Amino acid sequence: MQTAMVTRNPAQAFPFPVFAKAGSALVAERFLGRPLRLARGAEIYAEGSPIETLFEVVSGTVRTRRLLPDGRRCIASFALPGEVFGLDGTGRHRFSAEAVTEAVVIAFARKDIEDCIGREPRAAHSWQAFTLRHLEAAQDRCILLGRRSAAERVASFLADLADRGQHGPHLLDLPMSRYDIADYLGLTAETVSRTLSALRRRRLIADGANHQIHILDRDALDEQAGEGDA
Amino acid sequence: MQTAMVTRNPAQAFPFPVFAKAGSALVAERFLGRPLRLARGAEIYAEGSPIETLFEVVSGTVRTRRLLPDGRRCIASFALPGEVFGLDGTGRHRFSAEAVTEAVVIAFARKDIEDCIGREPRAAHSWQAFTLRHLEAAQDRCILLGRRSAAERVASFLADLADRGQHGPHLLDLPMSRYDIADYLGLTAETVSRTLSALRRRRLIADGANHQIHILDRDALDEQAGEGDA
DNA sequence: CGACATATTGAGGCCTTTCAATGCTGGTGG
DNA sequence: CCACCAGCATTGAAAGGCCTCAATATGTCG
Fold it and tell me: Which residue in chain B has the smallest CA separation from A129?
């Protein structure tokens, strides 16, 4: 259960401050970033802009996404409170980042982090593990997108959000639109909507107030998600 | 063109020895790994086994893949000569690795590499960039799998292999089976076969001897692949 | 050369998409 | 305070792309 959570949620393994788990208190104190307050829909950085900063979400939800030339959109990740985003390339951002809801994020200068890595062996190690966990998540997503049905993807998404969220395994926030979810799962908004309706009909989930979802039968949901992986 | 190649082919950015680009000759010499000769289909490591080694391909082709509980298979990557594989998790392998063809690979003790990272700031930096490039590739693959048609996926795959291969941009080796390609692209073997036939019919490609493919119209193939990304 | 795995091709079906209409909700201004 | 508006969600019907099942070709290795 614990390990599954880590796999599902690479970013959360690094609670604020970013390097808290670097094994060095000194490190943690170096990164007292600058907090940003964001309106709904606000762009945090654009695709193609140079990478100078990493961000940690304090409150709200952030999405990173790319637009294809023909207008198709892909969402690479949603960042929840406590998670880090901005790690999407070596030199320039290969995705843009926008606030899904009102949000507060903290910016960390990437330069500072890299300097630190150069000086602090344990930070380097920790940072490496952090990146690897993101890589694991991306690989799992490839499997989800390549080999799983719409029903499995949506169930898996809900289970993942519940595990990453702050309301326990049976309640989750779903602040993003059906279109965002669809772009994240490689589906259409209509299919997402239909799949959610089917889950409601089967009494696996129920709607709550404020875009919340209650998971009524977590075992059945996990089963529908395809048992553990992804 | 050059940058596109790097994006497509993260592993090749580190030719043998693994750390040749670490900026430190000293580093390169530390990793004189042990060469392994592999028969066709031989397993190099199993899913779930502890990660102790990283591998560089000297000759032949290697695949990393996972089997889902219900028998569906996913291939995470193909490693070509000069490329590195084995970087698929923090503690245990989350994929297995097998030789697609007869192959020679060189094993590097991960422990040595991590020790080195701790001691050599430049190695840490270099390693970090290396991992990030793998992450970029995985993210691009998510877009490929989530938002592109069968025709785009296959064209993109061929273009990618040509860029990574050693015969220039108009000739490539295709040693893996249609099933392997299908499991890599999130399709079925039949669809891959049909798509290749369509490309042949349109004179974008032609078969060569020994599982080679000639790219007759590279521009058209890139166009079919969806223009640059992926 | 023969046996087996792999590749190709065809026909039909299913799942997801597309197109379209309706209902809902939250924010805004009269 | 309420009505209106715009965006989002839901649902339906039809189409399309990819998959499944099946048969036939090709090639590869003993």
Answer: B90
